[in-house]
Amino acid sequence: FQDGQKVGIESSQELLGSVITRSLKIREEIKRRAKLGRNRIKEINILWRGAGLSKNRKVQLFEIYIGTKVCYSLETLNFMPKDYEYLDALQMQMIRIVTKTPPPFVVDVEDRIEITQDALRDRYEIKRWSHKLKDARRRLF
């Protein structure tokens, strides 16, 4: 600065919900946002306990409150196909937490059939986050 004070060099900075670093690591940003989303799920589950909401309504609210938090402005990043797959896997992990559905590789003690990711998407009419981001990228460009 003009008064002789040196400008500090920051390794990372948060800007509009994203952490900007010298070497932008998309996977690290997705993990950070997923952690924020999981924390929000814990908070919102407390509200849902006595509300008597159906699983469909919980999934809709999840997409509104948590999905937007996780996906906010991700369309500006350059994703690889593996990053899209990772984002969709995180979405389904969180949906399973919200709906209290066991993972696809777990068989219930009542011998119910396992619920695959695609079956769960069809049941609750869930659009993949990767498709939402690709649509947003098309609108952006």
Give a verbal description of the structure.
The protein has five helices and two strands; from the N terminus they run ββααααα. A hairpin with a 2-residue loop joins β1 and β2. It has a two-stranded antiparallel ribbon with strand order 1-2. The mean pLDDT is 85. Helix content is 56%, strand content 6%. The N and C termini lie far apart (38 Å). α1 runs parallel beside α3. It is elongated. With 141 residues, it is mainly alpha-helical.
Would you list the SSEs in sequence order as H and E? EEHHHHH
The number of distinct β-strands equals: 2
- Helix count, per DSSP? 5
Poorly predicted tracts of residues? none
The termini sit apart by 38 Å
Report the mean per-residue pLDDT as an integer.
85
Strand content: 5-15%
Order of strands across the main sheet: 1-2
Radius of gyration: 19 Å
Structural class assignment: mainly alpha
Can you summarize the main beta sheet? 2 strands, antiparallel
- What is the share of helical residues? 55-70%
Overall 3D shape: elongated
